[in-house]
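Archive record:
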Amino acid sequence: MSRLGRALATAGLLISFCTFAHAQQEHYTTEQSLSERIGIIEKKQDLFHAYLSTHMSGDALFTGQSFEGAHFSGRQFRIDVLGNVNDWLSFRWRQQLNRSNAGIDNIDNLPSSIDVAGIGVQAGDQWSFFFGKQCVAYGGIEFDLNPIEVYEYSDMTGNTISFNTGVDIAYQMTPRQQFKLQVVNARNTSFEEAYSGLTGVSGAKVPWLYTLNWNGTLAPFWTTRWSYSFFHQGKDENRSYNTHYLALGNFFEFGSVSGYFDFMYSNEGLNSKPLIPNTHNAEYRSLVLKIDYRLTSKWNLFAKGMYETAGASAPDQGNRSQFFRYDTLRTSYGYLCGVEYYPLEDSGLHFFLTYIGRSTGDKGIDTRHYTNRISAGFIYQIHLL
């Protein structure tokens, strides 16, 4: 090969090598490292989480001592989607899959099957906000539990509207002391539908429910969830009708023994619950006590008792409702016990066997009504994504 040929060949090789090296350099400078890829995956995982909350059981039903029948039931079946868009913005959507989607005529234009639908904003270390449909910030430990964990609600909690649309403002004063102010719709339906059978009463033009909530720690073994709620229901030519709701939830833990005690009181100018026939001046009291004894990491024993009264009071001379002074029209007892088995560590999956009894009596009726249920099944919050 001539000198000129060898020179051209050498130049071609050098150009090819440089081009290859440049291509390799571009490839490795634009390729994400393993640590970067892991960071993106973790960010995507934090952006979107989906859970399926289930409570399935086989139930045997009794009225008094008479066997009524047995069936399998999906008592709770919810999808829960939530995530963090960044360090200050989050979102959440939770819907009951075994509940009707009726409710397009609701005042918030959302179906009743939706529990939560909104966004959260974290404004610094202490202030946070949630906008949209949400759980009402009533006090009470049981009210704040995941519904799949509750085998039987009290009459008051079971007949209280729990999910309304509005805004929640939280102030984290210390790591163990939180205060909330929440303003949401007091009802989801029209006034006529919420209080059927009333005449001469006009509904509030701004039916908002205002709640002050304190979640705190009084001692290493004692945490609280207390609240006071108020809303204006309506008025007639003589007086205004309002609801005052007080809830004091207390959680205790002493080693392997834990539990909670809830006290709830509702004074309602217009009766919102179908527990007594009175339309005006209804009052409700509820006491709930639950004890858990963790035998081992896999076995848990529990017992729960509920005592509730409902009645009606007459307004005083100033046309205001009286507090804690009413004629008892209904008493109710609830009692349950059972055992839970947790087969997996770091998992919410547990199997259960429980007995649930209820007894109710109305004023003027000598006999009480007894119902009993024996249930066996499982509770599991499945992390889908």
Confidence is low (pLDDT under 50) at residues 1-38. The radius of gyration is 29 Å. The longest strand covers residues 66-84. Residues 201 and 236 are 5 Å apart (CA to CA).
